Amino acid sequence: MGSYAHPAEHRASALPAPTTVESPRCAGTEASLSCETDSDCRDRPNGACISGDWVEGGTYCGCVYACGSDADCGSGEVCVPDGVVEGDFRWSTCRSASCTVDSECSSGECGISSWHDGCSYVVSQSCRDEAADSCRTIDDCPDGSSGCGTDWSATEAFTCHEMECAIGRPLRVEEGNRTAPTQAGGGWARSVARQDQALSADLRHRLAQRWAEIAALEHASVASFARFTLQLMALGAPADLLADTQRAAADEVEHARLAYGLASRFAGAPMRPGPLDLRGAMPAFDAESVMIGLVDEACVGETLGAAEAAEAARLCEDEDTRLILEQVAEDEARHAALAWRSLHWLLDQHPSLRPLARERLHATLAAHLQAGPELGLSAHGLLSGPALLALRQAAARDVLAPCVAALLPA
Questions:
Q1: In angstroms, what CA-CA distances link 250 with 42, 168, 181, 376?
Q2: In a domain, 222, yes or no
Q3: How many structural domains comprise the chain?
Q4: 122 forms bridges with which residues in the sheet?
Q5: Alpha-carbon distance 209 to 373, whole Å?
Q6: Could you report the average pLDDT of every consecutive run of 10 residues in the chain (410 residues)?
Q7: Alpha-carbon distances, residue 225 vs 60, 211, 231, 247 (angstroms)
């Protein structure tokens, strides 16, 4: 097992990790079979074909890979044993890292962190820097924070985080989701209202910060849809998919304006996006890459996003926020339908991709079925971690399972 120190874990040395996967193996009777025996899992070392329930009433078999050492991982990754940091991993897994051991860091600490962004656990490893880090552990963070760690920003500093993931269509690049920085200024907020003086200053700050994060994700979705438009054109997609993708991008512009409006309202000053860094965001045009992007960024995310926005609107006690969430829910439902239609067309054109599509759907959904922290802001349209988990489980069972069964029958 790798050598880590607590409570702020850092990696003194890289040692072998257990390669055992403690999970039931495939019985062959599951509803969806991406593999049947461990020997079918050959993409990386230590493959295991496990059986699981990815939605209530639905079972699958899929490959997982336990790393035994850093050598089993890719460039920029290290092998992290189960139990080192918070998160339901159940076996040793490869995680992003910019350092491997303490001796590589001028501070003498190669730190690892795990925090929940509202969708899944974000685990990474990088050098600690006392001058740049704003926290040592979650104990240094405000109440309601979901962890102290790095988010792979330009500085890689350890900072306090709240649930920052808004399910939908992100702009995904190699290191994760990309968004533009938020800055003061007009031109984006749909309707800047007065400050809510009845709310505490701390709550106004948290709401402004959270809605600014959501707005940045909505803003980045415009670029994601633009990228998808180019991919569809490169693959010869029909006109209706292109037209609906263009309309969806326009919806995301409006979503961003509405979210920046809420952020500005709670901040008491107009807020807007800064320049969006598009380095590394250019599209891949081969059918397999487009399929993976569709599954990872759209089919699961936007289906869950529509359900979450509708539930957030139902529980929201603020009328302006509720009306915005209702509009977002309606639009995201159309975007989800577009994603599934696009995947259906792509798999009809490239049927050899069906097994990989099934495997990616299972893995993407499983990543979203993890509980996050309890924040308790549902009255303001922000669901708590446990509420999100329950909602996603219901949406997976009632919506996603039928979609997968219809598109990819066992």
A1: 42, 15, 21, 32
A2: yes
A3: 1
A4: 115
A5: 17
A6: 56 84 86 81 87 59 86 87 72 86 91 72 84 84 73 67 64 78 88 65 83 90 95 96 95 94 89 90 90 88 88 89 91 92 95 89 73 66 76 81 79
A7: 30, 21, 10, 9
What Å distances lie between residue 398 and 33, 230, 251, 337, CA to CA?
20, 32, 26, 15
**SS3 category, 388:** helix
Give the structural domain span for 244: 172-410
Residue 395 tokens, joined? 């949406």
Q: Is 81 exposed, middle or buried (0-12, 13-18, 19+ CB in 10 A)?
A: buried
- Residue 139 token pair: 């104990």
What the block records as the tokens of 402 is 């039928």
Question: What pTM was estimated for this model as a whole?
Answer: 0.68
**Beta-bridge partners for 176:** 173
| Count, residues in the chain | 410
**What residue has token string 């971690």?**
385
- CATH number assigned to the domain comprising residue 216: 1.20.1260
Q: Is residue 284 in a domain?
A: yes
Structure tokens at 187: 């031109």
How far apart CA 371 and CA 342 sit, in angstroms, is 30
